[in-house]
Specification:
Helices cover 23% and strands 27% of the residues. The chain has seven helices and 19 strands. Strands 1, 2, 5, 6, 7, 8 and 19 form a seven-stranded mixed beta sheet that branches. It binds NADPH dihydro-nicotinamide-adenine-dinucleotide phosphate. NADPH dihydro-nicotinamide-adenine-dinucleotide phosphate is lined by residues 56, 127, 159-165, 167, 184-185, 189, 191, 245-248, 292.
């Protein structure tokens, strides 16, 4: 079965859902393919589903949880008539218009669209060291909110020096006996306010100039083999849980080889949300390696919906 829509939105983080709100209010009846709940990289609601308190989204002076914020955005998009579907686009043909997307949920089903807004977001970057893949979800995690509870009474390492690492570390102090933050330099990238909170938490210790070489263990994690980047000395740090928070990579599989990407893999957008393919717009973390905030992502979703609406109108589609 093939159905047609004027605007197909792929992704349901702040960018996708804001695009959905604007496109729906512009009477474009967008279809939103939200992602799959089982997936680490493209779950409905995007990365905010994996965060705890969001303290910097305007309009929530008392903070709001990531999942609650996304649920509100989803409700708002649905209220204006966006057609939200829990499914995943596994292939997108952007070589000619209308574009065509194939869904995982039904091998026979495809959707053609006059315009596509790509809002597939980004996913956690991994260390790519021995043991990491083997222990993923078995002592090694990229999401403290999801897995922190399982580490009650453990000594945990968090790898990274940005806001994500400190947010994970602070959250994990609710469960862990100790949290060691391993950073490859001696200065954090994280914001000052997060640094202050982490420095003043007595469960958190910083291990500077440290690179992880291997995740050690048998059936459970028992430690990390680490190298001091100043002295080149290797040692074993005894921990029973590891959280990796070293940044993100954009989810561009659907458009790789079709759309222009920056050297670092992010989708190249020109003015607003325009990509090099006419009718294909990109919004949110898939095209933003600089700001990467929920609010900027939502803003770029708004831009993409307005761009798509005007583009359709000028072409009389
Ligand atoms: P960042 O890119 O900001 O930080 C990544 C950190 O991981 C850096 O300290 C980096 O080290 C380190 N790193 C990168 N690659 C490796 C590697 N291979 N091995 C070891 N360490 C590595 O990513 P974040 O996910 O922390 O943050 C992304 C954006 O989201 C930021 O803009 C941040 O402000 C925002 N954010 C905001 C939050 C909030 O406001 N509460 C919460 C979480 C994120 P180095 O510094 O040496 O490059």
């Amino acid at each position: 079965m093939t159905e047609h829509t004027r605007v197909l939105i792929i992704g349901s983080g702040p960018a996708g859902l804001t695009a959905a709100i604007y496109a729906a209010r512009a009477q474009l009846s967008p279809i939103v393919i939200e992602g799959e709940p089982s997936s680490n990289s493209d779950q409905p609601g995007g990365q905010l589903m994996l965060t705890t308190d969001v303290e910097n989204y305007p309009g929530f002076p008392e903070s709001v949880t990531g999942p609650e914020l996304m649920m509100k955005m989803r409700e708002q998009a649905a209220r204006f008539g966006a057609d939200l579907r829990v499914d995943k686009v596994h292939k997108l043909d952007a070589s000619s218009r209308p574009f065509r997307a194939w869904l995982t949920g039904d091998a026979e089903a495809s959707i053609t669209a006059d315009a596509v807004i790509l809002a597939t977001g980004a996913r956690s970057l991994m260390m790519n060291v021995p043991g990491e893949e083997r222990f993923l979800s078995h002592g090694l995690s990229t999401c403290a909110t999801c897995d922190g509870f399982f580490f009650r009474g453990h000594d945990i390492a968090v790898v990274g020096g940005g806001d994500s690492a400190l947010e994970e570390a602070l959250f994990l102090t609710r469960f862990a006996t100790s949290v060691s933050v391993l950073h490859r330099r001696d200065a954090l990238r994280a914001s000052k306010i997060m640094q202050e909170r982490a420095f003043s938490n007595e469960k958190i210790h910083f291990v500077w100039n440290t690179q992880v070489l291997e995740v050690l263990g048998d059936d459970k994690v028992t430690g990390l083999k680490v190298r001091d980047t100043l002295t080149n000395e290797d040692r074993v740090l005894a921990v029973t849980g590891v959280f990796v928070a070293i940044g993100h990579v954009p989810n561009t599989t659907l458009v790789t080889g079709q759309v222009d990407l920056h050297a670092n893999g992010y989708v190249r957008t020109g003015l607003g949300s325009y990509t090099n393919i006419e009718g294909l717009f990109a919004a949110g973390d898939v095209q933003d390696d600089v700001y990467r905030q929920a609010v900027t992502s939502a803003g770029s979703g708004c831009v993409a919906a307005i761009d798509a609406e005007r583009w359709l109108e000028t072409r009389g589609i």
